[in-house]
UniProtKB/TrEMBL annotation:
Organism of provenance: Tardiphaga robiniae
Keywords: Oxidoreductase, Peroxidase
GO molecular function annotation: peroxidase activity
Annotated segments matching region Disordered: 1-22
InterPro entries linked to this entry: DUF3297
One Pfam family per UniProt: DUF3297
Domain of life from the UniProt record: Bacteria
Protein name as annotated: DUF3297 family protein
Length: 84
């Protein structure tokens, strides 16, 4: 368990999977980041912020006019960690 705690210290406060975002970090994403949101494992998180306590997840199959998924922001405790 201490291994995950030390690894989470290496994770940024905010991270996005969208390459166009200023919070995108390919080096971190290569290490297979996992997210626990409100104590449950989430596999569809597009962006998170630990200090503000939110995650953005797709809102079903809805797309915007550019073909990107519409995202909704969910508030609660966020715990990122490395799965490796």
């Amino acid at each position: 368990m201490t291994d995950n705690t030390n690894a989470s210290a290496d994770l940024p406060d905010r991270l996005s999977t969208d390459p166009r975002s200023p919070f995108y970090n390919a080096e971190v994403l290569q290490r297979d980041v996992g997210i626990r949101f409100k104590g449950a494992e989430k596999t569809n998180v597009e962006e998170y912020c630990v200090s503000e306590g939110w995650v953005k997840v797709p809102a079903g199959a809805a797309k915007d006019r550019y073909g990107n998924p519409l995202l909704i922001k969910l508030s609660g405790p966020v715990e990122p960690y490395f799965r490796d």
